[in-house]
Amino acid sequence: MLAAAERLVPREHLARKVRKLVKRFDLTRVEAGCSALGQKGYAPREVLAVWVYASLIGIHQGTRLAHALQTDLALRLLSAGHAISRSVLNRFRASQGPFLLQALEETVRWAYQEGLIEEQALAVDSVRLRAHASGLQVRVQRHSLKRLEALARVDVRSLTEPAQKHHEDQVQRHQQAVRLCQQRGAATVVLSNPCAGLMQFPGNGVHPGHRVTVVSSGARQRLVVGVLLSASGNDKGHLAQALQEARRVLLQVGLPPSARLQVAGDAGYWSEEDLHFAALNRAWVDVLLKESSPTGPLANEPGMLRREAFTLQPSQRAVVCPAGRTMRGPVRNAFDACEVYFGVGCADCPQRARCTRGACRKLTVRWEYERLRQAMLQRMSQRGAAARYNQRIATVEPVFASLEHDMRFRRLSSRHPPTVRAEVLLKLLAHNIRRLLTCSRLFCVCLVLEAPVSLDA
Predict the structure, then answer these.
(1) Distance in angstroms (rounded) separating the CA atoms of residues 414 and 228
(2) Which of 112, 207, 359, 427 has the smallest set of CB atoms within 10 Å of its CB?
(3) Does 302 fall in a domain?
(4) 139: which residues sit within 8 A by CB, 6+ positions away?
């Protein structure tokens, strides 16, 4: 079978390119954990090449890949003629998470050595992937607390014996949900998938999912240099960990410690925690964030006075309304960690119709957030910041297009945390390998096109 594959698979086939590049990986530690005993053995390099190529052509389940190995010549070429079983394929992927992370970092090293990494052209964003879990396994802390309050009001003594048993089961179920949410510090948990959470998917409702945060480099190269896996429903608070991981990888591949990164992120990272990180770490990273759109019942209503119409005076901790009157306050709101200010003389104010629908205008202020907000707005107003930020979409969004559309990877096939992480790392490794192959080909084309110019000169 191998001889037929060598003869029939074209020389420029993607499988041959993948095999050639996979040969560059150092699999010494992986091979040290393998045994030469037994009737059938498969070289780890061959299994890795099979998984990378399968990911690129949209095969993500071990069962489908094992069936494809029976008839696909390109896969047989990569497997050295073997029909690798489903159990071997799944076991390799599940157990090689640390190696896949190392291999991903190795692709960054190769790209850095070839001058393909641009530390001044980084972008960060995340994609939501469906988890291998049923919606029936989701528990929401807020709903469980309400349900426990309702169950506590039930007179158990008046129930029949089966009803009492059902009542007891319901109480234990919701107590377990609240306990798990508190232990993990999350608003939702998925009982059958510990690393998943309830997420809103675009146009497809609410489902258990995983959030994959990616830091990529270059609008042309689009190479992944950092990855973070979480179960959060939004991006807030993930900027620090994602950028620190990307910096660790870049320093490891040879970036000088004195080098300063520049990263662009969308409005999803506009939070006090992420703004604080950006202000605190300006020495090694220049963060460019776009302010999120205002929210609230009057925020987007035409003709209404927006928050920018009010003058904040941080030194005096005072707020002046658009009518020039100093608002009453502050009143401390300990629950939301903010200060509340109330309008003065709103009843006879000529701008009341454009300012509030209530008896007086209320304004909440978090002074530390306002300081961080002004610092980021000032940075974004500087020359070149807007143009650099506009490259964000071309830098990171194609990574997600590669995963979801080119590879058709929208849902994970495992629910165990080590395997989930390994599966995500495998897809990002396949993406980086494809980008290395593509960038090398484009580089050769550029040389051919530029050659006549140099000859004429």
Answers:
(1) 18
(2) 359
(3) no
(4) 174, 176, 177, 180, 181, 188, 189, 190, 191
The C-alpha atoms of residue 101 and residue 227 are separated, in whole angstroms, by 9
**Same domain for 226 and 285?**
yes
Contact present, 109 and 44 (Cβ < 8 Å): no
Q: For the chain, state the CA radius of gyration.
A: 28
Q: Tens digit of pLDDT for each residue in 227-254?
A: 999 999 899 999 999 999 999 999 999 9
In sequence order, what DSSP letters do the residues of 245-285 get, joined into one string? Answer: HHHHHHHHHT--TT--EEEEE-GGG-SHHHHHHHHHTTTTE
Beta-bridge partner residues of 217: 122, 223
Assess whether 280 and 337 both reside in one domain: no
Helices (H), 356-391: 367-380, 385-389
Q: Are residues 25 and 164 in the same domain?
A: no
Q: Does 233 lie in the same domain as 180?
A: no
For 308-323, how does the pLDDT look when each residue is reduced to its tens digit (9 = 90+)? 889 999 999 999 999 9
Tens of pLDDT along 62-95? 999 999 999 999 999 999 999 999 999 999 999 9
Report residue 192 as tokens.
Answer: 């059958």
Look-up of token digits 């510090």 = 185
* Same domain, yes or no: 274 and 163: no
Q: Which domain holds residue 387?
A: 102-128+209-290+376-441
pLDDT band (50, 70, 90) for residue 40: low
Per the model's pLDDT, the better-predicted residue between 183 and 300 turns out to be: 183
Burial of 316 (0-12, 13-18, 19+ CB in 10 A): exposed
DSSP SS3 for 214:
strand
Q: 332 - beta bridge partners?
A: 339
Q: In the chain, how many domains are there?
A: 4
pLDDT in tens, 172-227: 999 999 999 898 888 888 988 989 999 988 876 899 999 999 999 999 999 999 99
Residue 82: Cβ within 10 Å count = 20
**Identity of the residue numbered 253:** V
Q: Say whether pLDDT at 414 is over 50.
A: yes
Same domain, 108 and 214: yes
